[in-house]
Write a structure and sequence with these properties.
Length: 286
């Protein structure tokens, strides 16, 4: 080593560094290949772009290479759950002490003025219930609509005389379920006492065939609309009435638990139900 010149030492150091980098790369690739699918699937998006710009008056072009951005799916899931946790409420009956009693199921806020959707089987024969928000506040609600065919029920926030200010609830951002694809990652939020999260994929999309009249013609046309969303998530009663969301935090549907199979009612169907109900109310008023 003493007989080596400074240049030779530098070249030797570069050679050792090069060999170490190759060895590290081989070990990394081997470990990734042997890793469980759940680990390798955490990388969701890799974005890399090279921008080439020719500067006038210069013979050489200026090349700008943006930094590679790696977004892990687990981080997207965490953010999506955070975005929706304030929109999840617990539905229960009033206890003997007048406080919130045992939880019957989960509900999801669908309007800021106090409209909540839940699984119809979460309700009893009573018309009045209590909801508890993520902040622990308790509010009185009553049944606004019970749609047994779709499996959902709508609860409406009651305005109490002792409440000086208008209660505002946090509603989620709605997704467009018509753009759902098989294999898409979905997240279910449940938990009777606190948030519980399960992840899975869309495994089946069931269509409803609807007949629509054609203007100026006697015949009718048929269209297919999304009826139910089926995922590979096994819903327990803890998830009944809770939200099904995507990795971007958009609400896709309301989870329904049944003995013959679990499913999610598309949020588009829920919003249509609310819209039709509003139209009926306006017609009665007129």
């Amino acid at each position: 080593m003493e007989d080596l010149t400074k240049t030779q030492l530098i070249l030797l150091a570069l050679l050792v560094s090069f060999i170490t980098s190759i060895a590290t790369g081989i070990v990394t690739i081997t470990l990734v290949d042997q890793a469980p699918p759940g680990v390798t699937q955490t990388i969701n998006r890799v974005v890399e772009r090279t921008v080439e710009k020719v500067v006038p008056g210069q013979t050489a072009s200026v090349v700008t290479k943006e930094t590679t951005v790696v977004i892990k799916e687990e981080n997207l899931i965490i953010d999506a759950v955070d975005k929706n946790s304030k929109s999840v409420v617990r539905v229960g009956l009033e206890g003997l002490d007048g406080e919130f009693g045992s939880t019957l199921g989960i509900g999801v806020v669908v309007s800021g003025d106090g409209l909540i959707v839940t699984d119809s089987l979460n309700l009893t024969e009573s018309n009045d219930y209590l909801i508890k928000t993520s902040s622990g506040r308790v509010h009185s609600v009553s049944v606004d609509d019970l749609n047994l065919s779709d499996g959902v029920a709508l609860l409406k926030l009651n305005k109490l005389e002792e409440e000086e200010s208008v209660v505002k609830l946090t509603k989620p951002s709605f997704g467009d379920t018509e753009n759902l694809r098989l294999g898409q990652t979905v997240i279910a939020i449940g938990g009777l006492s606190g948030d519980t999260v399960s992840t899975g994929i869309v495994s089946k999309l069931n269509e409803n065939i609807v007949e629509l009249p054609v203007e100026g013609e006697e015949n009718q046309t048929t269209i297919g609309t999304l009826g139910t969303i089926i995922s590979n998530i096994a819903f327990s009663s803890d998830y009944s009435g809770g939200p099904l969301i995507d990795v971007d935090g958009f609400l896709l549907g309301i989870n329904i638990t049944r003995k013959d199979g679990d499913f999610s009612v598309p949020i588009n169907s829920v919003l249509d139900l609310i819209s039709k109900k509003s139209e009926n109310v306006e017609e009665v008023v007129e």
